[in-house]
Amino acid sequence: MAKFRRKTCIVLLLFILFIFSLMMGLKMLRPNKAAFGDPFGLDLLPEIRQHSHLVKTFDSQKSDKINSETNSKNLKSVEITMKPSKGSEPYPEERPPLNYYLHVFYYSWYGNPQFDGKYIHWNHPILKHWDLRITKKYPQGTHNPPDDIGSSFYPELGSYSSRDPSVIETHMKQMYSASIGVLALSWYPPDSNDENGDATDYLVPTILDKAHKYNLKVTFHIEPYKNRDDQNMYKNVKYIIDKYGNHPAFYRYKTKNGNALPMFYVYDSYITAPEKWANLLTSSGSQSIRNSPYDALFIALLVENKHRYEILRGGFDGIYTYFATNGFTYGSSYENWAKLKYFCDQFNLMFIPSVGPGYIDTSIRPWNTQNTRNRINGKYYETALNAALQAHPSVISITSFNEWHEGTQIEKAIPKRTRNTVYLDYRPHKPSLYLELTRKWSEKYSKERATYALDHQLPVS
């Protein structure tokens, strides 16, 4: 009996030692910084840790609504704003070279009280429908920043000012991280501005300086300023080249005959008669800019199919499609890009399709839901980029870096919830999702472009 007790004690002692050893081993495996009650390894995913307090406040139905990008209005709860993520940008040595065939449309029209004495553009008015009966069905008035802005998404930088040097610097860093080589700056003449903003030409020197710091180039996206015609276009092109043309960040595109020419995107070019453009853009025109110190590449916006021949008659050097809504116009429909490229090749024009991550402008046009395009967690953007690559374009343009009103931005956005609004966001991905996708496709485009014959022009990097 004593012998049996002794064996039992030995077995029990060995069992206790085994359990003790197992507990010590598990303690060693546990991450040192994991807080009590956190899921195992949560600190390995800092953004999940950062967001977990918000996720717990949502029931699964509301969370699904947010992640499927539907705007939930009139939710009565306290405001919750997600803090910017850190460390989401790759280290410089991990970044591929900038792709100067990849351009992104950039807007410098935002303002806030700290830098501008008032909010600009974030307080965008809700636009009326042309049918008064439809207008009456929707809210009226303007947005009320900083919590209520004219966008369905909310910027990581908040309701920022475009004149804030730190904001400009951050934007250049984000473009650099995405391997974008050129920003196409929305531009109005010094004494002009869009109907919802102030003059912005005075910001160009700072933008050029900050761009140069990151080896980015700046081209100009000429907006349809009041009374734009061939004569004042000549004066404005001359102004831009004289004032900014010697800056190292000023973008020039080398043609196959060796000329390095500036490039100008001309938004809504179709509203001016081709004959007027021909005065400026053909060598026989009365206001001709050709073969002069102010010669440049002028890229027209193609909306309808018929615009092809008007663009030719006007003397333009290429076409772009701008709109991020597939199917909205002939030009923005992916299915037409191969035909447009073929047309451009026939007439020695540049073809520049515009790709976007999605589209939603219902914060300023609540009646325009038919043109909303869901981002589908990045799939919409990648489909557009793939379609563009298939067309073997001269350049690819991105709509946009920061056109927040139309929800086409690739700039970082964060989750934000106020008493009345749940803003859309990029979850379950990081705020840098669209910069990372851009970097991936920039590298792919660069490699693929090198495999097909170079067209009539080469970029100056």
TrEMBL record:
<keyword id="KW-0735">Signal-anchor</keyword>
<keyword id="KW-1133">Transmembrane helix</keyword>
<keyword id="KW-0472">Membrane</keyword>
<comment type="similarity">
    <text>Belongs to the glycosyl hydrolase 99 family.</text>
</comment>
<dbReference type="GO" id="GO:0004569">
    <property type="term" value="F:glycoprotein endo-alpha-1,2-mannosidase activity"/>
</dbReference>
<protein>
    <recommendedName>
        <fullName>Glycoprotein endo-alpha-1,2-mannosidase</fullName>
        <ecNumber>3.2.1.130</ecNumber>
    </recommendedName>
</protein>
<dbReference type="GO" id="GO:0004559">
    <property type="term" value="F:alpha-mannosidase activity"/>
</dbReference>
<keyword id="KW-0812">Transmembrane</keyword>
<dbReference type="Pfam" id="PF16317">
    <property type="entry name" value="Glyco_hydro_99"/>
</dbReference>
<keyword id="KW-0333">Golgi apparatus</keyword>
<dbReference type="GO" id="GO:0000139">
    <property type="term" value="C:Golgi membrane"/>
</dbReference>
<dbReference type="InterPro" id="IPR026071">
    <property type="entry name" value="Glyco_Hydrolase_99"/>
</dbReference>
<keyword id="KW-0378">Hydrolase</keyword>
